[in-house]
């Protein structure tokens, strides 16, 4: 049974279809693995009974020859996705024990494809964070440890719980969201593949909103092939989401069968920033050689406004957050703290319900949208965003994809950066530009740091060209040959 948790999604799919094991056996093995992984604090709600019921239904469909793309595959769901009849908190006290009476489109698509829900994964509060330390349920611990150092380290954020439970071999895959890097950075920190699709590729309906023009759902998996399989099931036009694109959904898995001979891969000079650790720079250079050896043509490109992406993001995202989070007032659902009058009730509810990072971003957002500052900050940030989009459009006239590091560091110890918001925000320096432009991007595990921690490389593609991104990622994955795994210390910690 333990061996079932070490399969990839593609291997489990093939094994289920060949009747080498049942969906129930697969679910039982993963329910046990989730239980053993509790010291990681990666899951805020386990749905073991529901997983078994869904697995039994999958077994029946498989027996009838009706199995779908993800039939019987156990997945974890970031607690930002509304799940019908299952508590959804967004990692915040203000939502309390909110139980949605509806299902998000992305998770509904996954269940329609036969996937099995193991539970809801921990996350930074309202997806605001780069370390999974802002959750009201406490921080998530990365399954990895530094060589010779037992201090707990962060899994990245905000999809840290989703990343940690997959890296711990307790889920075959997980669904997360990426606003400024919240899938890709945790993937880099935990040795996983993390894919942010083009904005609009996956519906946002039923996802608790952080920044509406940036949020996008995507998969966290152990292989590029698994990411392709999950993305195909998650994607599609949704009439309930006005930002959902009416674009065909290709066979992403089939795209992996092609080579990358003649593919033009750009290396943006602006990503060679001062202070980039030597190990990450060396890995980036190895990644360039790997793609070149696989037949790609490497070209230097320029993205002149890269340096302005992060400051612009931290104006646009908080501005949208301050608007989206205005709905949490203690009147309709979630936490309610009584006050002397309705205004006092609003203030007390929001002060007690929101954590420090969420309050910080709401205040920044309200400030940049306020009279007298809108033009100076928000409008200017949107103009910078347009320039960033133009930079990428110009670059993609000469190249088919871009290769960069995913994160400027390896995973760091819990507490190391939580007192310095600026240092924390800098974790997103390589992932934010693609988010601001709405481009597809993927992080692929490519090596280990000197401390024995995973490091990822990022590939960025044209709008709605996930096929090329996945094809290049597959080549990078094969060349890197990353097979390292964390030692399961958490099993002894129970």
Description:
- Strand 10 and strand 11 form a beta hairpin.
- It is globular, with a radius of gyration of 21 Å.
- The mean pLDDT is 96.
- The protein contains 16 helices and 11 strands.
- It has an 11-stranded mixed β-sheet, with helices on both faces.
- Helix content is 37%, strand content 13%.
- It has a domain of 312 residues: Amidase signature (AS) enzymes, CATH 3.90.1300.10.
- By secondary structure, the chain is of the alpha/beta class.
Largest sheet: 11 strands, mixed
Structural class: alpha/beta
Which of globular, elongated, flat, extended, rod-shaped describes the shape?
globular
Helix content: 25-40%
CATH superfamily of one domain: Amidase signature (AS) domain
Overall CATH class of one domain: Alpha Beta
- Secondary-structure arrangement, i.e. CATH architecture of one domain: Alpha-Beta Complex
β content, as a range? 5-15%
Helix-strand pattern: HHEHEHEHEHEEHEHEHHHHEHHEEHH
Mean pLDDT equals 96
Order of strands in the sheet with the most strands? Answer: 1-3-2-4-6-5-10-11-9-7-8
**CATH-defined fold name of one domain:** Amidase signature (AS) enzymes
Are there runs of 5+ residues with pLDDT below 50, and where? Answer: none
Total DSSP E strands: 11
- Number of DSSP helical runs: 16
What's the alpha carbon Rg, rounded to whole Å?
21 Å
Cα-to-Cα separation, first versus last residue: 20 Å
Task: Detail the topology: elements first, then pairings.
Layout: H1 9-17, H2 23-36, E1 43-46, H3 48-63, E2 74-78, H4 105-112, E3 116-121, H5 160-167, E4 173-178, H6 184-190, E5 193-196, E6 216-221, H7 224-234, E7 264-268, H8 278-293, E8 297-301, H9 309-324, H10 342-353, H11 356-368, H12 374-395, E9 401-405, H13 421-425, H14 432-437, E10 441-448, E11 454-461, H15 466-480, H16 489-492
Parallel strand pairs: 2-3, 2-4, 7-8, 7-9
Antiparallel strand pairs: 1-3, 4-6, 5-6, 5-10, 9-11, 10-11
